[in-house]
Amino acid sequence: MAFRVISPRILKNLRCNTTTKPLKTFHPSISTAIASPSPAAATLSLEDSEQLFGSVSTKQLLRSSVVQHAMAVESLVDLGMWVMKSSVFESGVMKDLVMTTMRQTFYSHFCAGEDAAAAGRSIRALNDTGLRSMLVYGVEDAHDNEGCDKNLQWFLNNVDVSKSFPPSSVSFVIVKITAICPMPLLERLSDLLRWQQKHPSFVLPWKQDSLPIFAESSPLYHTQKRPKPLTPEEESDLQLANQRLLKLGQKCEEANMPLLVDAEHTTVQPAIDYFTYSSAIIHNKDNNPIVFGTIQSYLKDAKERLLLTIKAAEKMGVPMGFKLVRGAYMSTESKLAESFGYASPIHDTIQDTHNCFNDCSSFLLEKVANGPGSVVLATHNIESGKLAVAKAHELGVEKVKHKLEFAQLYGMSDALSYGLSNAGFQVSKYMPFGPVEMVMPYLLRRAEENRGVLAASGFDRELVRKELGRRLKASVF
Ligand SMILES: Cc1cc2nc3c(=O)[nH]c(=O)nc-3n(C[C@H](O)[C@H](O)[C@H](O)COP(=O)(O)OP(=O)(O)OC[C@H]3O[C@@H](n4cnc5c(N)ncnc54)[C@H](O)[C@@H]3O)c2cc1C
């Protein structure tokens, strides 16, 4: 490895050289965060590694470099998945060894910490570099009410942790509906909602006010025959799920802490959207969206659905917040559609996905510039970042900057995050936290889903390497 041959003197110099250049000193808050960027800083510049990583320590850069290289190797992700699933992982010694290695490498690179105190330190450190945090407790899907109740406590606790920081530090609390409503029920609700879309006279007595969750082009193949109505037990489970979301929404509303609902695969997404929109109708008031939904632009129906939902929300006077992503379940979606004998719901080419993301981004920016609502552009894609920055300038940065949040995963695409932040935009990192044993399976699953992204993060690896080289040279000469 390159740094094995570095002399102790140089290493000492490197350690001292933690901050080579102060980054901007303002700390954004949700409404008054962004100090006006100087005209020179207003564009997205990603060439100058010294400027981008000025506030990042050499130790952090070295760890980033090692982890990024390791994650780019597909076989390492496979090995990680194999170890976590295999029986060797159940043996005490082996498990301890794997956990210690994971804790010191991948976990500390991609996670905020094991508990609220550790997460707090990561949040402060990130905020010192000008970025904000989106806290996500790394829980997996729940299959019964007991699991959902336990998860709800974690999410509520997450709101308490988040609100204990100034708004300049934590931008959103994340919730996975699959963790607070049992998965089998989400599947049943989605089936029933799809059947109603196919047969508008089909009555769903439990359905509350919501917004459109399907468009003409939405895939409905998952539901081939008329589903049975909810049983009394399912109705009671649904009531419990509604109560959990209501409790969480109320807590977020009281704390004025926006709640971002993650999107999952299409088997359960109709029910997730249904919960999200009915909750938004309750909590999103006075130009202040509290509950945000997620639109996956890799889906062919994404744009049409987004337009319909926004139109209906406008008619009802509900200010909406959306997180826009490309989507993380590509292979699951294609396989599922194939098993039903249908074409994949994902765009046929990656360029179509890029176009859809950029069109939806442009549409949402126009909406928030001229009316209520907010938008989170969650992407590592540099071209999409550049286009959004250009659109913000075209619309007038002042009109959008408090309503726009860029977001990247913690430990990924730091160059883009710092570049956007240097250009005067609000930027958050999506930060999972929780005990290593709980978060590692979550992380590895995300790594498996995002293989393409990990392998494609060469741009960031190159910039980190360039900056490490520059610091090394600066220490030697
Ligand atoms: C803060 C944050 C929150 C997120 N939340 C969610 C969420 O709630 N739900 C969710 O599903 N995902 C979520 N994601 C993951 C996201 O959906 C993407 O998987 C990931 O960010 C990669 O997309 P990108 O915009 O960064 O673009 P890029 O870095 O450009 O990645 C493009 C990737 O898109 C994929 N792709 C999409 N469409 C096609 C196609 N037609 N053909 C081939 N490849 C295609 C490929 O895997 C490719 O590697 C989140 C990401 C972030 C940063």
Automatic annotation (TrEMBL):
Residues 122-453 form the Proline dehydrogenase domain. Its cofactor is FAD. This is Proline dehydrogenase. The lineage of its organism: Eukaryota, Viridiplantae, Streptophyta, Embryophyta, Tracheophyta. Converts proline to delta-1-pyrroline-5-carboxylate. The keyword Flavoprotein applies. InterPro entries: FAD-linked_oxidoreductase-like, Proline_DH_dom, Proline_oxidase. GO terms for cellular component: mitochondrion. Keywords: FAD, Flavoprotein, Oxidoreductase, Proline metabolism. GO terms for molecular function: FAD binding; proline dehydrogenase activity. Its EC number is 1.5.5.2. One of its GO terms (biological process) is L-proline catabolic process to L-glutamate. Belongs to the proline oxidase family.
